[in-house]
Amino acid sequence: MADNNSNTKTLRHLAIIMDGNGRWARKRFLPRFAGHRAGLEAVRKTIKSCVDDQKIEVLTLFTFSSENWRRPAEEVGLLMKLFMTALDNEVKKLHERGVRVRVIGELDAFPPELQQRIAAAEALTENNTTLSLNFAANYGGRWDITQAARKLAEQVERGELRSEEITEQKLAQMLCLADLPEPDLFIRTGGEQRVSNFLLWQLAYTEYYFTDLLWPDFNADSLQQAIDSFSKRERRFGRTSEQVKGEDDA
Ligand code: IPE
Ligand code: IPE
Ligand code: MG
């Protein structure tokens, strides 16, 4: 069994699908890109609130999915530019606040300048401990599981591992973010109720929260509402309610 014995109410890791930028812009008769720019402001607010108000340890943001390459080339190009400028402008400030930045996904597909910026941001902030901030970029949950399986297969090929020794735990160790607790709460804005190939393995026992708010409208109050909903839930991890209540009293 996976190690799912975390305290029922502790929110250590928050994962968010930031959806609805395009619709936010359209409602204002603006180009979709204006929505992405406004979305960046919501990212800033969310990070600030996670650090200052909520004391969350890990925040993982879906920034660009492996399927988002299917969008018009112009939008993809502008998103890359926005990501690059944001890294340039924000990393120093994040570093000063003790935030560790990581980018998970298939990074080889990105322009070399962007890859360099990512590597530099990760190296600069490597030892920070206030918040672990992960951007999932060209990320897909199926890709993550596949790359983990490939690493195990390589160990088998080298004779370092026998196939019968492959366990859930061994596979989990090869996934992105293996060193961090799994998400406790998953938020998706924008009204869609789907996972869109985000952290498939890691979300197995996460609490889900969907809101119709469009991502640029998300703020500290919206985050608080999601967390209030989370804190009312009973995370049973397969046990009965009576068992869980007994543990809480212990
Ligand atoms: C999410 O907003 C941002 C990215 C996927 C990069 P969308 O761009 O998907 O916004 P909608 O869903 O079209 O409103
Ligand atoms: C998911 O949003 C990816 C990100 C937020 C980066 P999409 O808007 O691309 O998801 P689908 O395609 O509507 O499911
Ligand atoms: Mg969308």
List the helices and strands and how they pair.
Elements: E1 13-17, H1 21-27, H2 32-54, E2 58-65, H3 73-96, E3 99-104, H4 112-125, E4 131-139, H5 141-157, H6 168-173, E5 185-188, E6 207-210, H7 220-231, H8 241-249
Parallel strand pairs: 1-2, 1-5, 2-4, 3-4, 5-6
Bound molecules: 3-methylbut-3-enyl trihydrogen diphosphate (IPE) (2 copies) and magnesium ion.
Residues 17-19, 62-65, 67-68, 192, 194, 196 line the site of one 3-methylbut-3-enyl trihydrogen diphosphate.
Explain what the structure shows.
- The chain has one domain (13-141, 180-249): Decaprenyl diphosphate synthase-like (Undecaprenyl pyrophosphate synthetase), CATH 3.40.1180.10.
- Strands 3-4-2-1-5-6 form a six-stranded parallel beta sheet, sandwiched between helices.
- It is of the alpha/beta class.
- Helix 2 packs parallel to helix 3.
- It starts with 12 loop residues before the first strand and ends with a helix.
- Helix 4 links the parallel strand 3 (99-104) and strand 4.
- It has helices at 21-27, 32-54, 73-96, 112-125, 141-157, 168-173, 220-231, 241-249; strands at 13-17, 58-65, 99-104, 131-139, 185-188, 207-210.
- It contains eight helices and six strands; from the N terminus they run E-H-H-E-H-E-H-E-H-H-E-E-H-H.
- The chain binds 3-methylbut-3-enyl trihydrogen diphosphate (2 copies) and magnesium ion.
- The site of one 3-methylbut-3-enyl trihydrogen diphosphate (IPE) has 10 residues, from helix 1.
